[in-house]
Amino acid sequence: MQRKTKVGLIVIFVVIIIISAVLAPLIFRHLLESNYLGIMKKLNEPATKEAIRNNMTYACNFTELFEWEHSYVKWVPMGEIFDRNTDPTKILVSGKGRCGEFSILYTSACLSLGYDARLLVSFRPYTYWELHNWVEVKVNDSWIHVDPTDRIWNEPSRYKSWWGEIGKDVLIYAFEDGKIEEVTDSYR
User: Fold this and answer.
1) How far apart are CA 172 and CA 160, in angstroms?
2) At residue 151, what are phi and psi to the nearest 5 degrees?
3) Per-residue pLDDT tens for 137-174?
4) pLDDT, mean over the chain
C-alpha cells in the first residue's frame, strides 16, 4: 500500500509541475500585459502629453530627446533603492530612474510630440523576471530600436549576448495604446 501511495504522490507532483510550467508563464504574461497596457494608456492621455510637453522648451527630434531626458533623469545604480515610477510626470519630479523609467519617459515624450512610439519589455518566461525596457519609434513606416537609457539608436543586436537565446530564454513584447505584439523575432 505504501508503494501505491508514493507512486500516487509522485504522479501528483509531476502533474503539478507540468501544469505550473504551462500556466505560470501565461499568468505572468497576463500580468505583464495588464501592467504595460495600463502604462501605455496613461502615456496616451491628453493630460499626460500636455504635462510632458510643458517641460520642453522646444519640439525635439528623436536624438535631442535623449539630451532632454538625461538633463532631467539620472541613472540609479543597481542595488541602490529608490521609488520606482511608471508615471512620467513623477519620473521628472524624482529625477531618478533605471531602464523602465527612462523608457517610459522617452515614450511619453515621443507621444507628446506626435511621434509614434511604443514601450518594449523583455522577460524570461520561466523565471518571470523582467530584464530590460526600451522603446521603438516609427520612422518611415518601420519600427526603429531606441534605448534611451544609453542613448542608443537602431542597434537591436546589442541584446543578443545579454540574456541567452532570444526566443527560447527571452521573449520580447511591444506595447502600444491598447495593443501588444510579440516582437522577439526582430531581436534575434
Assistant:
1) 12
2) 60, 45
3) 999 999 999 999 988 888 888 777 776 667 677 888 99
4) 86
Domain 29-187, what fold? C8orf32 fold (3.10.620)
Residues 29/95/103/65 CA torsion (nearest 10 deg): 170
Separation of alpha carbons 45 and 64, rounded Å: 23
Residues 89-110 have pLDDT tens digits of 999 999 999 999 999 999 999 9
C-alpha cell at 71: 538633463
Task: Specify the pTM.
Answer: 0.83
Amino acid at the residue 40: M
The per-residue DSSP string of 73-114 comes to -EEPPTT--------HHHHHHH-EE-HHHHHHHHHHHHHHTT
Asked if residue 175 lies in contact with residue 40, where contact means CB atoms within 8 angstroms, the answer is: yes
- For residues 170 and 127, is the Cβ–Cβ distance under 8 A? no
Q: Is the pLDDT of residue 86 over 90?
A: yes
- Domain range summary for the chain, segments of one domain joined by +: 29-187
